[in-house]
Task: inverse folding
């Protein structure tokens, strides 16, 4: 299992600013994932962050907009850059402690972001 | 592409009623299927899973059977409780094999 601490839990930000979301895991994990959940929508995978390599972004997401750091096996950050109201969403950190294909994922409680 | 479709909510039921939340998927091959649940104020957590056709996942009185002929994984519970009020997400493993593709979620409210 894994316990994930994600912060901030919520924030209200001004257009054009950036917010960095932190994800701390209580155990070492190889694979970490960042998801976005827009109002009324499903969870959408933003990127996969493996320690020691560049994050892999899904279609529609780019590093300049969502830079990710993965300095060690227990921590990652996602930055939402140059925010606009369309970025208002819940951002979720997720890990796969088992590291294998088809393994269950554990999720943080999310960061609710509102952009004015 | 791969996707998951689940029934629209919100679903409102009286306590002890029968619950079905429909989920269908499109995918290459036969990926593992999952139901996740998000209780109010909490993070998503795995409710049950099935890894191959005809498998039945079960947990906390909930069940779902992997039906490859109908590409479905419907969630059922014979008698819901107020404490089952939550948002339920159907998911399957993505093409990468590691991340998950989720449906939009179905909100369930159970009233006394």
Result:
């Amino acid at each position: 299992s894994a316990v994930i601490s994600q912060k901030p839990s919520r924030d209200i930000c001004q257009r054009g600013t950036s917010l960095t979301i932190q994800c701390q895991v209580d155990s070492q994990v190889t694979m970490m994932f960042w998801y976005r959940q827009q109002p009324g929508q499903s969870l959408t995978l933003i990127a996969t962050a493996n320690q020691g390599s560049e994050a892999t972004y899904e279609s529609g997401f780019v590093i300049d907009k969502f830079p990710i750091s993965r300095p060690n096996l227990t921590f990652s950050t996602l930055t939402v850059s140059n925010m606009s109201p369309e970025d208002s969403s819940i951002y979720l950190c997720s890990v796969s402690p088992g590291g294998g294909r088809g393994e269950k994922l554990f999720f943080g409680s999310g960061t609710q972001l509102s952009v004015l | 592409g791969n996707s998951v479709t689940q029934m629209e909510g919100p679903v409102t039921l009286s306590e002890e009623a029968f619950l079905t939340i429909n989920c269908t998927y499109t995918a290459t091959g036969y990926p593992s299927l999952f139901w996740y649940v998000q209780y109010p104020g909490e993070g998503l957590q795995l409710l049950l899973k099935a890894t191959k056709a005809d498998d039945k996942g079960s947990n906390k009185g909930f069940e779902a059977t992997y039906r490859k002929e109908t590409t479905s994984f419907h969630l059922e519970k014979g008698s819901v409780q107020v404490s089952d009020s939550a948002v339920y997400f159907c998911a399957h493993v993505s093409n990468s094999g590691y991340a998950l593709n989720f449906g939009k979620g179905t909100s369930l409210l159970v009233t006394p």
About this structure: The interface with chain A takes residues 4, 31-32, 34, 36, 41-46, 49, 51, 89, 93-94, 96-105 of chain B (CB under 8 Å). Chain B is about 0% helix and 50% strand. The two ends of chain B are 41 Å apart (CA to CA).
